[in-house]
Amino acid sequence: MNRTALVTGASSGIGRATAAALVTRGYRVLGTSRTPGALPAGRRLAGVDYLPLDLADESSVEALAAGAGDVDVLVNNAGESHSGPFEELPADDLRRLFQVNVLGPVRLTQLLLPGMRERRYGRVVMVGSMLASFPLSYRSSYVATKAALKGFSNAARHELSPFGVWLTTVEPGSINTGISERRTKHIAADSPHREDFETMLAALDRNEKAGTGPDQVAAVIVKAIEATRPRQRYAVGSNAPIVFALRRVVPLSLAEKLTHRRHDLRR
């Protein structure tokens, strides 16, 4: 195996599990962290070269692309979680979220694509979320960023597949990665949405703690990478095969109702 894979956000969760899985498959693996030098020894994976990346800083994205060399596989995993009532989302935080979750990964992909195209081989995996297919109240900002990533991937794959470069999206459902503790929350002290918001968050945290492990998501990412013709979308966790099959046959209003009931919201 002479392929080089770059996995963003490789210090924890899905990114770390994916980097580990790719090492065992024989890839040369580059993993990113905001501050690689500060990573404890226990979080460093053998066989992974760690590089700095701050997706909120475009110069950091460009420096990573320039320093990584030839990259055959890009896994855009790094991102931030965000929750809050739509009418209360701060504009500055929205801009940052879109920079980190969408514009940064898109720019990194743009910078690495020419090399993939010239070598006639490439795989780009966008790590999205099942919430982009099943939107949830109080997650509108996060849902919008994951839907945007999927939109870029779905359209651009048609441009690049003639060159042997395939883009795909992996949509995890409820995954037990500890992200609940790192989620940014916005809620006004006197918000009329507070009761429902807190109900949703409690259910979200509960579902994630009981969710699929990151190793299972990593296995699906590797499957997408190594497919001859990767599918447009892969989903994992939260009974994805059943849920997506049901969505094709039940009314949209029922799908919405079931999504909200899973999070203890009555609509």
Automatic annotation (TrEMBL):
SUPFAM superfamilies: NAD(P)-binding Rossmann-fold domains (SSF51735). It holds the Pfam family adh_short. CDD domains: 17beta-HSD-like_SDR_c. Gene3D superfamilies: NAD(P)-binding Rossmann-like Domain. One of its GO terms (molecular function) is oxidoreductase activity. The keyword Oxidoreductase applies. Keywords: Oxidoreductase. Its EC number is 1.1.-.-. It comes from the Bacteria. Belongs to the short-chain dehydrogenases/reductases (SDR) family. This is SDR family oxidoreductase.
